[in-house]
């Protein structure tokens, strides 16, 4: 199956009350682990690629690996730019073969964010590429992004609703109390914001920083209208823990396949757990 825009499955997700996971691509083992999980679960999914990960792997490798993973897994797969910071990088990704992009204009003033996002939507929709926009500031650290907790600002529901009405993004990321990276304590999710926005906005809400959010909170947010959940840190933690243990126990180990293989299995297991939790299993 070729790469598809998120609109191939997100409207159905919101209607039927499940969420599709965005699992970030860090290297080949992540690509294979995520694709193997999806094949077994028969779940659609989104490959998230940050600008940092793109620099690490190279744009052409990213697209080629995603295309093979889509073909191999046989499920609907979107290749999605995560937190695209400007119009140029969005265009570069679309030209290279991405089927979906996020434009994160949340660091701009509100009206400017709307204007810039509208330009991205116009260009992307013209070639069948889906778009995610962001409103409010999601805290935490992820690659090039670092937002101090004090600067993380919740989205205001009326602003989020007008943002969607004007931009018509296909998925709307709003800051509701989750953060990128690992949580120090338990995250406090503002369900009231999700509820108010989801009722007025056709596009599903996106939850960034899905790693470490308690299962019950994930299920409640899906029930209220979250249709896309981003997970990266939890897969990284699972993969690295296995590799650390292998290398710690066997300092003489030098064949990368012997520790990266088990790391890949750990990613697969983590992703499968999320697909079941999100209710996307069997929805391919
Ligand atoms: Zn994010």
UniProtKB/TrEMBL annotation:
It holds the Pfam family F_bP_aldolase. CDD domains: TBP_aldolase_IIB (cd00947). The active site is at residue 82. One of its GO terms (biological process) is glycolytic process. Dihydroxyacetone phosphate binds at residues 181, 209-211, 230-233. GO terms for molecular function: fructose-bisphosphate aldolase activity; zinc ion binding. Its cofactor is Zn(2+). Transmembrane segments: none annotated. Keywords: Lyase, Metal-binding, Zinc. Zn(2+) 1 binds at residues 83, 180, 208. InterPro entries: Aldolase_TIM (IPR013785), Class_II_FBP_aldolase (IPR050246), FBA_II (IPR000771), Fruc_bis_ald_class-2 (IPR011289). Binds 2 Zn(2+) ions per subunit. One is catalytic and the other provides a structural contribution. Zn(2+) 2 binds at residues 104, 134. NCBIfam families: cbbA, fruc_bis_ald. This is Fructose-bisphosphate aldolase, class II. It comes from Marininema halotolerans.
